[in-house]
Structure formats: C-alpha cells, structure tokens
Amino acid sequence: MSILKAFRGLRPPVNLVKQLASRPYDVLNSDEARIEADGNPYSLLHVTKAEIDLPRGIDEHGQEVYDKVVENFSKFRKNGWLVQDSEDNLYIYAQTMEGRTQYGIVGCTHIDDYFNNHIKKHELTRKDKEDDRMIHVKITNANVEPVFFSYPAHPEVDAIVSEFVKKHAPVNNFVADEGFGHHFWVIDDKAVIARLVELFKNEIPSLYVADGHHRTAAAARVGLEKRKFNPDHTGQEEYNYFMSVLFPDNQLKIIDYNRLVMDLNGLNITDFICKLNEVFIVDKKGNEIYKPCCLHNFSMYLGGEWYSLTAKPGAYTDSDPIGVLDVTILSNLILDPILDIKDLRTSKRIDFVGGIRGLGELKKHVDSGEMKAAFALYPVSMKQLIDIADTGNIMPPKTTWFEPKLRSGLVVHLLD
C-alpha cells in the first residue's frame, strides 16, 4: 500500500507564478542562483538558497543563512506571495519537454512508507546534505520543495488524471526560460480525491524515489523527530507527511549522465586505446559527434576524435541488476582498472555532465584542455531503476538524470 494524502497547499497568485517558481536548490550553485534571481524579489531561490541575499563567500550552511531563510519565507507569506488554500486538495503538475508531457499527482506521502521501504530508494545519501535539508525543513516548518517519485502506471489513475485535465483549465500555465512547459491544476473535488487516495492505498504497492533522495530523507527525519517530542502523537499529524509529486513510470524518461576525466593515468592515447581494445570493440567515428546507440555501447571523445566503444560479451554480467548498468561497466572496465579512478564520490579526476546539456558540452571541455577524455552513456531505463530498487540494490553515483526538473514554489506544504 502507498499512503496518499490531500493537503492545504501554499500557492502563489497567478500573476506571480512564473517569477516565483524556481529550479531546485541542488541544480544551481550559489553564484548561478544569484544570477538567476537577480532583480526578481519573488524568486523562491530567496528561500531555498537564501545565501544569495548575503555577502559572497558566506558559509551557505551557516546560521546567518538559516536566519535569512526564516526571514524570507515569512516575508513571502506576509506579502501574499504564498497564500494557503482553504481546503485540503490534491494537485496535478504536468511538464512538457520536446513535445512530450508527463502528468504527476501532487500530494503528501507518509514517513512510515519511507522507513518501511514502501518508498523505495536507489541511491545512497550523504549525511551532510541530509542535515542541511533537515534544518531547512525544521526552520520553515514546511516542505518548500517537492520530491519526485514514480509509481507503477495504473489505468484508473491515468484515466482520472486525464479526465480531470480535459474538463478543467490549469490554474497555472507557463513556459520557463529553458523552454519547458509547466502546467498546474487544483483537484478540489472530494470524490476524485477520495478515489485517488483509495487507489494508492489498495493498488499501488510501492513508490520509487526518482529525484530528491536527500529531501526525502530529510523530511522523514524531521517527522520522526517531531514524533519524539509530541507526547500526544497519533500518527495523523501533518508532520507525518511530506510533499511529493508522483508520476507514472511509463511517462518518465531518464536522460544520460556522462563522464569527463582529467587524465589518462600516465598513458598516451595509443596505449590507452590499445588497452580498450582488450574489452571493447573500438570504432573510430571521426570528428562528427557520435551518440551511443544502445545498452553497452559507449561514446568516447579523445584527441579531437569520437569513438564507438562496444563492450565485448563476457566482459559484463547481464543477470546482475547492478552489473548490467553501463555506469558499472564503464567503471569496471575503464575507470578503475585503466585510469585508477576507484571512488566516483571522492575522486577529483572525474566530473559528470547531465545529458540535457548535449554531447557538445563534453567536446568543449576536452577541446579546452580542461579535461582529457569524455565518455557518453546510453541512458538507464525506468525498468532498470525499478529492478534495482525492488532488489534492495543501490545504483552507482551519478547514474540517472531526470528532465524536466520540478519547479519549486508551485505549491508548498506546511507541517502544522
């Protein structure tokens, strides 16, 4: 079973939505956030990355920043930039990219589902990042940003969402600067809400964290802490729930997450390619960008040339949900044994680029001399992600990139 709950969301007035809605806190560094929010007092980045309103160089995890978060969130509410709905609602949040639209249900999920593994994870989290988001949830007493979940597509849920969207105009509808469409509906029909809640309870066995592992862990930890300090705790208090956007798995598309390496571990190009030939079929493609065509086929850019690398049979294990991943194959066949890059989380010799930026971005970094080589990977499928989560496995770092990113600020969930 999966618990879904309606809530009284805080939402911006229609005339401020496009200015207020922002990209997630972890997509932008502080300098990028300053530029993006420059001249826009309504941007939610003033709440999610409040260091932009303080001098450059300040510790973004320092008390001054957290104090500014509280001040700015209070200002947003006081000024009527975020106004609470009068009734509990569910919401629909749809995103359009390159002619494809995905429809998510916005509601609250229960922290018990996180701890009992009905909400399944596929990534490890870092405690320092969890702690930072936990503080943010506690001081605002809110889930200011949603987490991005998926669930096994269900025909009746699909039909309810489709029917509602056909019959009602979105309350918010805008195209963000990156060209993606964002559309938002309020489900205030009690019968529709009740049926969706019932379907998730009885027919959706699990939810899967797509994006937002740290926010999910932080929200769950805050709820657990609040329980301990409430002697009258019942399990139904608002702090037991956190805001999530739930998309059917068959509507989501994972984009490639590619690698750049700074050096060839002392090898020249000829010797490096010779070593690759032992475990890959290596095919030089010239100076035209080459994109991987299928699983276990990689694209490499090195020395001004593009190459196709196809892993030879026997060099990987398709029966292993982790071993079959191309990120694992790349690590096991190239990064670790040839380049001596063993820990993707800590090595300073490797960097990662989301496929949304295109393979030309990889070429640029290599041509500039900043990086020595680039590897582009075929994207992971939702089936692979679900198989890994269902078997209790953990994906290697920087495996999945979901796009479009959820815009923060379309709705906020208060914990009281």
Distance between the termini: 25 Å
Q: Which spans have pLDDT < 50 for at least 5 consecutive residues?
A: none
Q: How many distinct beta strands?
A: 20
- Give the helix level as a range of percent: 25-40%
Strand-pairing-aware structural class = alpha+beta
Report the β-strand fraction as a percent range.
15-25%
Query: Biggest β-sheet: count, sense, barrel?
Result: 8 strands, mixed
List the domain count as a whole number: 2
Q: Averaging pLDDT over every residue, what do you get?
A: 95
Your description of this structure?
- This protein has about 425 residues and is of the alpha+beta class.
- The chain has 2 domains: about 10-255 and about 405-415, no CATH class; about 255-380, Conserved hypothetical protein from pyrococcus furiosus pfu- 392566-001, domain 2, CATH 3.30.1760.
- It contains 13 helices and 20 strands.
- It has helices spanning about 15-20, 30-35, 45-50, 65-80, 110-115, 125-140, 155-165, 190-205, 215-230, 270-275, 325-335, 360-365, 380-390, and strands spanning about 10, 85, 90-95, 100-110, 120, 140-145, 145-150, 170-175, 180-185, 205-210, 240-250, 255, 255-260, 280-285, 295-300, 305-310, 350-355, 375, 400, 415.
- The strands form 5 sheets. An 8-stranded mixed beta sheet has the order 5-10-7-11-4-3-9-8. Strands 14-16-15-18-13-17 form a 6-stranded antiparallel beta sheet, sandwiched between helices. It has a two-stranded antiparallel sheet with strand order 1-2.
- Strand 15 (about 295-300) and strand 16 (about 305-310) form a beta hairpin.
- Helix 4 packs parallel to helix 6 (about 125-140) and helix 6 crosses helix 9 (about 215-230).
- The longest helix is centred in the first third of the chain and has 16 residues, at about 65-80.
- The two termini are about 25 Å apart.
- The model has no long low-confidence stretch (mean pLDDT about 95).
